[in-house]
Structures are given as C-alpha cells and as structure tokens.
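Question thread 4412

I'm putting together a teaching handout and wanted feedback from people who do this every day. The idea is simple: show students a protein as raw sequence, then show them the structure tokens that encode its fold, then repeat with a second protein so they can compare. Below is the first pair exactly as I plan to print it.
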Amino acid sequence: MNTFSAFMEKKCANCDSEFVVDDSDLQFLDKISPVIGGKKCDVVAPKMCPACRMQRRMAFRNQSSLYHRNCDAADKNTLSMYREEVSFPVYSPDEWWGSKWEAKDFGVDFDFNRPFFEQFIELRDTVPHLALVSQANINCDYCNVVGHSKSCYLIYGSIECEDCYYGNPYSCRQCVDSFLLRNSEICLECVDSNKLYDCSFCQNCSNSSGLKFCFDINNSQDCFACAGLNHKQYCILNKQYVKEEYENILSDIDLTNETQFSKVMSQFNDLKQGVPHRYYVGTNNEKVSGDYVFNSKDCKEIYGAEECQDVSYSFQLLKVNDSMDLTVGECGELLYEVSAFYDRVTNVILSYFCWGNVHDLIYCGQCTRNVNNCFGCVGLKNAEYCILNKQYTKEEYEEMVPKIIEHMKDTGEWGEFFPMSVSPFAYNETIASEFFPMEKENVLKRGWDWFDDAGLQGDVPGDARVCEVTGALFRVIPGEQKIYEHFKVRLPNRSPNQRHRDRIALRNPMKLYERVCDKCSVDVQTTYSSEGKEKIYCEECYLKEVY
C-alpha cells in the first residue's frame, strides 16, 4: 500500500534533476494499481522526472519517418514506419489485418530466472508488426496514423482531411505544411490554429480568414503581419487601414522575392516579440497548468489537450480522463505511462500503441480490437488472459501475473515504462527527437539507436530542390505548388522534414516557469522563460488588453 504524504522529493534516475511526486500523484498510482485475483499490485512512484518520462514515451512513437521495404508476409513492396533493417517481421496493412496468422502462435512461457524486459524484446522480435496505421482512407498511401481522409500526402496523426500535404492537420481541406491545425481550409504554414480560411504563416490564430503572417489573431479578417488582435480587419503591422489602402500596400509586396519575403518575416517577428503574450494558450479551462489546453478541468502540466479532466504530465490528448503520464491519444480513462492509444482504452498501464476497445493491459505493445486482461503481449487482436502471447485460463492468469510482478520488483523493473532499448525505432525516427532534440553522438553515448537516413522527404515526380539547412534533396509536388501559387509566396527552400522542425520550434518547450504578470505582478506558471524578452500577461490583464 502506498503511504501518502504531502509529497516525495526525488532525484531523476536519468538527468539527476530534482522533482516532486505529490499527494495527488501518489493517490492516482494507488488508484490504478491493478488488482489481480484479489491481490493488489502496487505501482511504485516513478524514478524519473516528468520530462524524462515524456521523452522516453515519445521514443516509442514514429509517425513521420517512412520507408519503402518488403512485406515479410508476401513478396511485395510496402511503405512502412519500420525500416528494412529492423529485427522483427513487418507486414503490410492488408496482410497484418488478414486471417493468415495469429499472434498467440508466438506465445512463450515466462522464465522467472530472467528479467522481464529481456523476454519482452525476444517476443517483440518474433511477432509481425503493422507497417502503417491507415483506416478508411482513399489515395493516402504516403500517410501514417491517418483515418477517413482522401488524397493526402505525408500527413500524420490526422483524421477527416482532404487534399492536405505535410504536417498534422485535423478535419482540414487543402492545407499544406501544418502543425496541429484544426477545422481549416486553404491554409499554408499554419501552426496551433483552429477554424481558419485562406490563411498563411499563422500561429495561435482562430475563427479568421485572409490572415497572412499573423500571431494570436482571433475573430478577424484580412490582416497582414499582425499580432495580438481581436475583431480586426485591414491591419498591417497592427496599424489600421481602410480597404483600399490595405490592398494598395499589399500589392507592392512581392512575396515570391526572397528579399521581400525575409523582410516581412523579420518585421513580423519583431512585432510579435513586442506585443503582450497570454501566459498560456488555452480557453474554457478550470484549474489547469501547461500550454495549449482547451475545454479541460483539473489538469496538471499537460501540453496540447482538449476535453480532458484529471490528467497530468501528458502530451497531445483528446477526451481523456483520470490519467497520468500519457503521450498522444484519445478516448481513454484510467491510464498510466501509455504511449499512443485510441478508441476506447481503459485501465491500461505501462504500454504502447494499444487501441480499439482494449482494457486491463499491462506492459503490452501493438494490441488492438478487443484485447483485455493481458500482460507482456505484442500484436494481439481479440484476445484475453495472455502472458507473453501465451493463452491461459482466467484462474491461471490471475495466479501467474502477481508472481511475475513480484519477480519484476526483485529485478527493479516493475512500475517503470519500457526502457529505450525496447523501442522498435531509432531515436531520431521518433517524436522524441522533435521535442527533445539530441545530437547523434549524445544519443549513441546513452546506448540508444540512431539511423542516419531517417524518413522520406517526398518521392513523387518533380524537380529536385536542395534543403538550405540540411542539404537533403526534396521535391515540391503539384498540389503543394498550387497552394504556394495561390498565396503568391516563393516556393520552400527547406525540406519537408526541416519545415516540420521549424514549425515545432515556434512552440515553447514543455517546461513551466514561475513568473509574474508583467502588468499586475500576479504569480503565473508559464512556458515562457523568465530570461525571454516577451511581455507575459495573466489571463485578466491579457483579456483587458486584447479584447
């Protein structure tokens, strides 16, 4: 039984930083500790700080590094998130979802003389892996973790999109180069925005149309290089014009010219630095901390969350309740240390890539479609009471699992998420490298994997261009070019992968600082460092200033 106290002060086993496990954390760990066969198996307090736990989970999600490789079930080529050199078989989606194989056929006995993680890796390396996650799509062959979309190319983690290219759109049409852009149409290079139409190079904007080079603009139309405005039209660098003046000034700006494009970007960035910034991005929340949080309640240190309640230390969630330490998922409850989950997931702990009406899973990976009460399993569908993919009766399972957990306590494994060595991906193939970037030398020094040729840059016909940052060759596809021509801006001089990294760099790191409002001096927790130049306002002061 966990002993509750006000908090526990700990030192991170990975980075040596000090962190706190507070009373609410301990109560949650007690709540999700599994009861199996009448025996409660207490989940111990984490050994790593929240940031290192986040980084570790992110290293289990590759959504944008894709490869051409052979399908190991049939003599044919397939596109895959797993490169040819991986140690396990990879099946194309039609083969993986087919009836020609059964994951339980790979089941093995648990060996109490060996560590669990060692045995899990051996099982993982025998079970076929799903090459791509794609559901109900039309002409979206070069997309991963995408559903109900049409004619899209190299988008990831998206649903209900059409004619979109590169990035993470959600319910969008004709959008190119986006990052977490939602419910929008005809947009280019828009980040963390919602309900935009005919907008380009925008960040943190909503319910607007005709914006170009804008930051934190809401309920507005036809604004150019503006920041921190609401209910405005015909503004340039935050200065009001009449329609004719606005159109005449813009007609003299040639954004296909690299020099003029760079000048506009420089003026816009200077203005953006000078306007007041809300201490966090979010609306309609109650008792939350973090950034990019919407319609949520009682959440702590969450980043990119919507319609969540009682969730902590997590990233990019939708409709999740009563959970802790999650990375990318939706529609879940009572989850702990889970990376990538979707569609009715409950009572799952210490697992990755599990989705589709699954519950009561412990240390499982890639399990889907009605899997429940399983421990240490890989690639199961429609299964229950399995350990290392071997079938047991309910009574055998409930007797065996508590013994395995006791064994894992002795080896020091119990309660910790899978180590990096279990991840099927190289570090730089995963979203961990996007939000916790590391040099190859440091990654290898830690004993983690690295792959020099990670990901596609785009491989359809077109004239090759050279990325000005990385030197990588890339192509501008016809649908993408039409959007650039529509906005009358010069074609990109950076590869899709580099443009994606640039968009992520627009966000603050997922770290909270104690600051005071620069207007009224009330205390706030913000992702803006105290060393930054931005003016940070509390909610009340910001609303008075902008609205």
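The second pair follows. I'd like the answer to focus on this one:
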Amino acid sequence: MRTCRVNWVRWATFALGLVLTSGGRSAAEAEGIRVQSRVAEVILYRGQARVVRTLKVPAHDGAMTLVVSDLPSKIVAESLFAEGAGVEVRAVRHRSRVVGEEPREEVRQLDEQILSVEDELGLNKEAGELINKRLVYLDKLEEFVAPTAKAELSQGVLNAETLKTLSLFSFEQRENAAKERVDLKREERSLRQKLDLLKSQRKELTQESSRTVHEAVLFVDNVGEEATVRLNYLVSGCGWSPVYNLRADSANGKLRIEYNAIIQQMTGEDWDKVSLELSTASPTLSAVGPGLGFFKLALAGPDEKRAVQSAGDVLSKLQAIRRRQDRAVLSNTAAINLRDNWKTSWDINLSANGLQILELSGSPEALAAIQSETPSTDEGPSLSYPLSGAISLASRSDQQMLRIMDSELDAKLYHVASPMLTPHVYREVELVNDSVQDLLGGAVSCYLDGRFVGRTEISTVARGQTFVVGLGVDPQLKASRELLQRESTVQGGNQVLEFRYRLTVENYKGVAVPVRLLERIPYADKPEELQVVLRDLDDPLSEDPLYVRLERPKGLLRWEFDVAPHAAGEHARLVQYGYILSFDRDHSLASPLTEEATQIQQDFLEQQRFRFLK
C-alpha cells in the first residue's frame, strides 16, 4: 500500500508539472501581444481630456489580442474605444492589476536586521522560560526541605548547617532570577522598539514598491500587414480656463485682444509632442439624446389656489430648475445603457415640467423674469470634431470574441431636436432588421463616417422589426425655444391663457440636414374642465400615422423638415406656434397629484421603448 501511494504521488507530481508547463504557454497566449504606444493627440475639455494614443499592430493574418500598458491612473474606463486604419477593432476592454517591484539592497539589509532582532527576541523568550523553570525547581526543593527539617527537628537530629546552606541557596537563586527577569524585560522592550523602527523604515522604502497598472486589451482582426490603431480614452484631473489681454491703441483706434488658456494637467501621464485641441464642449459617451415626455396638467380647487409669486421667487426657482436640468443633462450624456438614459431623461423632464409650470402659472412680473433669464447652455455650437471558418476558443479567464454575422441594413438618417429639454441636436438612424438573424439585446458602439460617436444599447430586435439607434450629438446644429407671448383674460366664468412660442434650429453645416423637431403642449384627462386648443401653426405637423395615433393626442408636437445649409442667426429655421388654455376661473393650474406620478412615469418609459423599438 505504501509503495502504491509513493508511485501515485510521483505520477501526480509529474502530471502537475506537465499541466503547469502547458498552462504557462496558454497564459502567455491569453495575455496577448504587448505593443508600444505614444500619446499623439489630446482634446482638452473643461474638466476632462480625450487622449488619442497611436500604436502599430504587427503583421498577422486573423484575430489577435493586443495589450497596451501604462495607461494613466485617472483613466475613465468606460470611455475606451479604438479606431483602426487597415485593421478592424472588434472590441476594447479595460483591466487593472497590482504589480510589485524587485526589493532593493537597502530593503534586503533591513530584512536581515529584522530577522536578527526577531531571533534575539526568541532568545529573550527562551531565557524567560528558563527562569520560570528554575523557580519551579526551587519551589519543589523547598517543598522537600521543609518537611524533612521538621521531622529531623522533632527527632533531635537536625543538621543546621545543611539547612542554612539550602536556605541561602534558595534565596540567592530567587534574587538572581528576579534581577534576570528585570533585565530580560528591559531587553525585550528595547528589542521591540528596534523591531518597530526597522519595520517602519522598511514600510517607507516599500510603500511604493507595488502599484496598480491600467491596461487596454484590444481584440483586432488584421489582414496580414502592419497597421495603425488609434486608442482613445477620457482622463480626469485636467482642464482649462480662458484668460484675455486687451491692448488698445488710442492713436489709431485699434484694440488688440489676446486669448490665452490656463491649463491644469494632473492626469498621471505626460503629453509629449502631442496635437493639442481645447474645447468648450462636454465629452459624451452616450449616443442617445433625452426623450421628451408628455406634460399632463391638473386643476386645483378654489381653496387650493396658490399665492402669487414675486419675480424674485420665480427667478430663484427657475435658477434651481436650470441647475437640476444641467446636472441631469450631464448625467444623460454619460449614460451608456438605455435604463440609465431613461432615468436621466426622466430627471430632465422633471426639470422641464417645473419650468413649464412656471410659464403657465406665473404672474406677468414672473414671466418677465423668465424671459430675462439666460440659460447657461446658450453658447453656440461646439466647433473644436453567421460564424464562418474554423473557430478555436482557449480555456482561459480573459474575454474572447467570436463574430456571429456581418450584414448590411437599409438606414434612414435624420436629426432630432427637443429644445424643451436641451439645445443639443442628436443624430438618429432608423433601421429594419432584414437580416437572417434576430438581434439579441446588448451594448452598441456607434461610428459615423468612420468615427466613434458614442455608446448605447439596443433591445432584442426580431427579423423584420424596425428599430432606432442614436448616433450622438451633431455639434454643428443647435436648437432653442423662446416664449414670445403670454396673455391672461377672463371670459365669462373661465380664465383664458394664451401662449405663443418660437422654436429655432440652426445648421452650421454646408449641406442641408433632415430634422425632426419635437415640442409639447399640455393635455388633460378631462377636457370639459381644462381645454387646450392648438393654434397659429406656421408649419404643418408630421403626418406619420404612428405619431398621429399615439403621440399627437397627448400633446406632443412633431415637425419634419430640411434645414438649409448655413442656416444660422437670422437665416435659422424658425417654427412658431401657440395654444390656448381655458378653465374655471376659480381654479388654478397644478401638476398632477402625487399618486398619479408612478403611472405618468410608467407611461413615459413605455413611450421611450416605443421610440427605439417599433
């Protein structure tokens, strides 16, 4: 039995060696090919930067995995993407790992001193235990001597000299043991202080010996020739702010303006000989703009009529709404999945609801405050830019990728503007899945004309089904909304409010672009109590059957037209409309009751699902 066990252990050890050897090769293959890169371009925003690294892909026929190391510690991992020339980038993933450095000579010396002190502490402990054994021996000796002396004394044969010698020996040994114990305690305290000091010195020397390395893992397909890939990502810890110098010359009436930038650069990487661009835009990860929801009104009873608000109160509320809306818009631009997009879209709509309530129920002074308030976004455009072949899948922890199909779909490209929510104009594309496969829901990286424009998601799309995908913000278009008129009159027992608005779409491109312009008016479940009449339409509304059937009855307005090239400023495309609200003059306008909010939000989410999947 023992011989069989020994043979089994030898066989297991040999087999384990084979596994580790072959496993080492698989791990090396799984690690990928490490390639060098350099920072070539930087777009510096107000609080972040988009960095472009260029790297050479070695000649290789087929799929390969590349690893780019030494990415900065302040990288925004979700922002990683890559574009290739002569190579197809199938996916990019971010990973981080902790690495250690080889110990330095001074660390080795400290380790030796620490071991030496620990050995001395061990000897100190042994000496203390030996003293304890001596004291135990003395206790046993006294237990023997005392009864013996008593017995001899009673018999009259006591050897006094021997008893004296033993007693003096016991007291002397105990006195020596006490002194040795004190010396050992003092030595132990000194040794522990020395050990603590050595460990502290070692900690100071080794506290930076381990660090977290950030890497990009690229899954690419090469055609057999060396190619170039541009690795893009966002980093934080940087920004810029403008400063000006004005130099006037009274003699010739000229004024010289110097426009400079104060730059903060604490990203953890050097930008050496890069192409630098400053931008006032906000970097966006989301390819989908916010969705415009329905705006439902309710009436408050006579006893619930609210006090008239001053212009200052309204302006204060308006500024708070604007701040919430700006934060929500910023969160929306970073939403890379539809759930987050819908949540942030709802937050934007809540702010827009508050703004529209102020427009509907404010006093003339309050409306004047609204019209005089300048939105922080009024900055103009940002002008800164089925499985085939043999497949092998190794057993490894790193992610791998296989292609399922490659198909072309017919697409209808257009722009969507919702100035009630945001001045940004988003590109969208409407597709019909006429491929041979159903498309399962998942993440999508969006490119337009060979350039990355953002990330989003699609829901599961059946064959033959129509769906919509966002293609990001078009920085060369801008939309705005302006309240032109608000009048309040009393007609019989009703209060009548008349509104007129102007919507503007500006196109800074040199070509015409198709635009869907979205706006809304209030709607009510009880038209006999609250009447809403649309009027003064300069342009006809969309005749799309689904829009007419599902959205128009709930107050959503939609126009479809082409915006001419260079249509900006006085040449911008304008749309004007108005509507009338009529209700009992003893009532006032209000948002729906709290208990209706859940259903309203559910209706909004259902509307958004319909928007992207038809």
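Top answer:
Good format. For the second protein you could add a caption like this: The helical segments are 2-31, 105-155, 160-206, 311-333, 338-361, 364-372, 545-551, 597-612. The chain is about 35% helix and 35% strand.
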